[in-house]
Amino acid sequence: MKPVKVLIIAGARPNFMKIAPIMHAMRKSSKLEPILVHTGQHYDVKMSDTFFDELNIPRPDISLEVGSDTHARQVAKIMERFEPVCDEQKPQAILVVGDVNSTMACSIVAAKKEIKIIHVEAGIRSRDRSMPEEINRMVTDAITDILMPPSRDAVDNLLAEGHAPEKIHLVGNIMIDTLLESKDRINKSEILKTLNLQAGNFVSLTLHRPSNVDNIDNFRKILAALEIIQQELPIVFPIHPRTRKMISEFGLEDYVVSMKNLILTDPLGYFDFGKLISASRFVLTDSGGIQEETTIYGIPCITLRENTERPVTVWEGTNELAGCDTETIIALARQILDGNWKKGRIPELWDGAAAGRIISILEEVL
Ligand code: UD1
């Protein structure tokens, strides 16, 4: 029998570590034929190519090269360029991961063409519609045929939204497959030497959510907390292009540079970044995936958001929400420095075997 053709969609940095284990496992299956489509939502070497090289992801079969734009224009461009790909390739299914614009845009195109949609990381919800990703999650799941949530709370969200139980397959957290698989290479990273850091004696920071960096009041509140924290421990800040742009637009360069213990770097590769967070005293972040990675490493995480679509990292892991309030961030940092933080445990099915479960299910249902 001819293998079932599945277009695997990747667009932005947080997608790459999720598609890597799926691509690898699917290429070994005689029943499935993966075709990799890169939308080009992220296109810089440091935001995209590095991850393909490090994680041994094959070069994309098809590149849509959409680049950055407003949300409406970016989504429109992806849809316009993905439609003829579907017509030419005639896949039986597309597989999307996560919650970026590319996830939603390609799903809408596929749904209208009656091509089956598989969504890995389905069902997570922040219930905050001011987050562009929440809209992407809701729209994608509403039209997905095979829902693959990472955790039980995500299954419950999908059931509460009225999805039929037979469409829902709890597969676990795909990102952890990549993390566990990469452990040796993460350990070997020389990033601490390069940045002249001692394990356990620094803080790592990532910041890029529009709600934090596109709003000057919120951005200033976070910077005020950093100003205090960096007096105690150096803070390493691999800076996202959006954040760099906003620092300059808001004229905040002098303030940022005045913090002598705030170490700015370009975005890091997967192994260096893994090493950085796993050796941190604690992590400050507004990312989704880093809340999960710190839980696996057992490193305290202060999330600079009011809510999270990954509540299991708070219930079971090492994560706490701080929003962008200066005093709250400082109080939580003090709590960690005083040795007063939960230990956390590894959530169910964050075991490095999610890709295997995904492929077995697809071989059966497609
Ligand atoms: C996107 C995702 C977000 C994810 C984040 C991780 C959506 C809605 N958002 O947000 O969920 O957490 O990626 O990085 O899909 N830029 C570059 N080089 C690049 C890509 C972007 O310089 O390779 C710059 C551009 O100036 C662009 C800005 O970064 O305008 C923001 O990029 P964009 O893809 O619009 O959103 P992110 O903030 O990266």
TrEMBL record:
Known CDD domains for this protein?
Answer: GTB_UDP-GlcNAc_2-Epimerase (cd03786)
Assigned keywords, A-Z: Isomerase
Q: Name one GO molecular function term.
A: isomerase activity
Keyword Isomerase assigned to the entry: answer is: yes
Key word Isomerase present:
yes
Which enzyme type, at the first EC level? isomerase
Which is one Pfam family of this protein? Epimerase_2
> What PANTHER family would the database entry show?
UDP-N-ACETYLGLUCOSAMINE 2-EPIMERASE (PTHR43174:SF1)
User: Its Enzyme Commission number?
Assistant: 5.1.3.23
This chain's protein is named UDP-2,3-diacetamido-2,3-dideoxy-D-glucuronate 2-epimerase
UDP-N-acetylglucosamine 2-epimerase domain location: 25-363
